[in-house]
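job 3f2a | input accepted
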Amino acid sequence: MFQADKSGAKAKIIFVLAIAISLLHLYFNILTVLPSLLQNALHFAGFALLCSLTYPLGGNRHHNRWLLTIDLLLGCAAAISALYLISMEDAIYARGVKLSPAEWTAGIVLILTALEFTRRTTGWIIPILIILALTYVGWWGEMLNGVFRFTGLTWETILFRSVFGDDGIFGNIARISSTFVFLFILFGAFLLRSGAGEFVINLARAVAGKTIGGPGLVAVFASGLTGTISGSAVANTASTGVITIPLMKKAGFDPKFAAGVEAAASTGGQLMPPIMGAGAFVMASYTQIPYTTIVTVSILPAILYFASVAFYVRIEAKRQNIKTIEEDAPKVITVLKEGGLPFLLPICGLIGMLIYGFTPTYAAGISILAVIISSWLTPNRMGPMAILEALALGARNMVMTGILLCSVGLVVNVIATTGIGNTFSLMITEWAGGNLLIANNRMALDSLVL
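job 3f2a | predicted structure (450 res):
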């Protein structure tokens, strides 16, 4: 009983904290303008706290009081360190970019907790890359020979640039995370809470449910359609997998194959326009290519990706002689009549505003309001409680992405500081130029022989 009560209390804390984070992001993205460093620090602080509870140290199966205390301490340490360092920015510059012992401690705690939360959400690979990048600048870079040699910086300079640099933990990628990415994922959460997820599943069943291997194709279509409203592979899997995987197993597909199809199809959800994953916004920011252009050119590759997964499902169904057909699949026209229009209106409105020239944050904010209004045209009307649940869902769906995008700024900062990115570019250009010269020489020789 104690464990259940404690777990219930923890769920309530997560729920309230997630709502507060979503409201904070709506406030500084739509209603006011904050300094970029402060906004990004608040973004990281909020998701560090939420990550410490949603990705606990002992795993979700363990409810040990001491582990929960450690998680809360880590989350609070990360949040306090981030906000403290940002508050001391002017003082650090006034000292000639010299860090006090307290700032040293806060900086080290910030980076260590960022590494830990990244490990919890994504595994060991990204933290190891961050450690290699930071030590390359401060230690082993000067041991190398050739173009990759780097004479090194002091650890004080590394720590300062990691926090306050344009490409650091609170830099450009964190800004993309705290603005475009979060608001689009929040928009997707509102769509899912309004009932769009059920509409997507029914539409997928109507399109593919009566074909051979239909349940597998339903998973592909459902994940593709859900990708248009979520932009998150995790949210995609959670919303469609609970329905499509049992359908595939019931039809006769191997459980491992069913899970693989759902994973592959849901991963493609973050490639499906218009609400794409964080990569689209990072690309738009660094290349200065309009987001609408990136969305437009992504349509065909996304369709080809889902088509390839669908072809594989069809081949596997034929190979295993799976002929189960979903007889009770609804008709497309029936699904559209029962609730298609209210869910399409916010998406079409979002696309229209982006094409017209509104900023992505403004378009996403207006589209969230449009989802609430459109839901009143359906049986699943969004009241105050449903709105709060959508706010909480959006923040929880953003935890992994928010932590990752902030932490990966540590690697990007090293690439920008050392110029190793330019080195790779020049090497690739040189290789390409050398191969082109060889090709031209061979063509000239061939023409002489002829």
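job 3f2a | Residues 172-208 form the longest helix (37 residues).
job 3f2a | closed
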